[in-house]
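#struct-pred

JT: dropping the chains for the assembly here, can someone run the whole complex?
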Amino acid sequence: MADFIKHPIVDLPDRKPDPVVPADQLHFSDEEKKEIQTWISRYPTADGAVMRALWLAQEKFSFLPPEVIQLVADEVGIPYSNAYGVATFYTQYFKEKKGKYVLDVCTCFSCQLCGGFDMLHYLEEKLDVHKGETTQDGVFTVQEAECLGACGSAPMLQITNGTYVHNLTREKIDALVDALREDKMPAFTSVTLPQDEDEMGGNRRTDVSSTETYQAGPVSETIR
Amino acid sequence: MSKAGDWRNYKRVLLPPVKDLHRLDAYEANEGYAALREVVTTDKWTPTSVTDEVKKSGLKGRGGAGFPTGLKWSFMPPVDPEIPRYLCCNGDESEPGTFKDRQLLEYNPHLVFEGMLIASYAMSIKTAYLYIRGEFADWITHMEAELEKAYQKGYVGKNIMGSDFSCDIVIHKGAGAYICGEESSLMNSLEGKRAYPRIKPPFPAQKGVWGYPTTINNVETLACAPLIIRNGGEWYAGIGAPNHAGPVLYGISGHVNRPGVYEYPTGMLITDLVNEVAGGMRGGKKLKALVPGGSSTPVLRADMIDGVTMDADSLREAGSMMGTSGMLIMDEDTDMVSFLRRITHFYHHESCGQCTPCREGTGWLENIVTRIDEGEGNLRDLDLLIDLCSQMEGRTVCALADAAAWPVRYTIDRFRDEFEAKCKPSLVASGVDMATA
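RK: done, full complex below.
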């Protein structure tokens, strides 16, 4: 074997790492299997359902190690390589273990100009981690995110691929971290349209517990 | 001169001021699904006449490219009962600076469903996919709940409202990839593949998802369809700028007092949008620059926007594009080099890696802009960047390379003094050939 194959210049991912999920837990429940079958029935070929199945697996196992991807591939009925290709292409599928709460701070474009980096650096300092790292107790992972589509309420962050927290300030981050330590997820927040404020006197939705307005972001102290 | 007419008294139609419009009962009470009922149950409409009405309205795609929607619909081949056809509604809103579609999904989801169904009727489609980016998880949950209600009421599914027209809607959840906003990679993503764009031709109308005829439209574009059927194509064509008609959701962000999504006609003066609609510059600062339609549209200097209106023609003359109408406003303190550095990082991160000029080019753009931003750059790096842009534009399968190159090219072109000020003085003046110097 040629030397460069034995000693690759770039670190290649381990093809068969030791499984992280114990074998007795590595299965879908009947309900989950049924849900995957429902998704398969909505596409002309089973392939279409792989993204939903990976989401389901990520919710169950919290991330997607190779053995989970294999499980998804078997359940959907596609080759492992296809499922692995999909899982590694998209940013929101976690390939390695993350903290219990992943804080995706947006620093892109509008958020950069409205203090996104201030919020990211504050969070890094507060939790004593660099972006991309997980705290020692395994509760928080801080990440820098690309545009999350909430530019009017910049700076903002997203908690573990779910809830958006708009119009971030340092006080808001303090409160959020404290609440998450006690496992209190913030509620879905509806951001009121400025024209609704003028014409309807507030948010048009009566079924949300939490509302925000679009606000001018703070003056950014750091822009990188 | 504003082409938006009396915009101060404009009555919103995409997001009319109705409490709880996102709920099916409130939507029904406000002419909801009336257009669809008229289309599928009366003889007044045929698939061709619906398409013709949309053509008459002059509706142009709101997803960025601005292609005429009626024309796109008419590209679908003649119906063959053996061959399935698909509609994809593109809700993968990930262009930085764009946050308008999410408002429609949140506040008026049934208008989107109704638009999808009318478009499906016009093209005799039986399955429509609504692709929403994975980050909008909360909104996907809401949409699924509302879709379920629409199914129960018989607005979606088999024999809609007792007619012989059937159409299913499936909500597809993405998982975080900017490239999925490109129509052909959206199709690959739907098929459960890595979202690599496809070479065109064949165009989606000939060979789309799973190889069958497909049409892909933006959320806001399809939301206009019920309004056109309700009020007529001529009514729609009379709103805003003559060549780019209709209501538009302007997403205004950045250094303004009142950012947010505003619905106004096309052809609004940019100065009106900044100074009156968005409440002027934050802290009384001076406007420095503005990006009119998402990160890939060329940036405009403050002295370039006098009399420029938000429609394709006017913005082209001014040297930019309408894009997604997600406007970013920058004040006098903005550092354009750092601003560009973050954009190049974005495109480097989001390049799918299929074509070499883009995969490598976006990386080098980021490297070189970072070097300049950190004060290590040379004057000739600026020319190197422009050269790099020329070697990326038009040399890849999709337009991501172009979208990555334009901000670099135009930001350097329009703010060259700032870039030069950050560079180390060079022995050889910029633009001089090293070999002959």
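JT: nice. The two ends of chain B are 49 Å apart (CA to CA). Chain B has three domains: 10-237, 247-331, 336-422.
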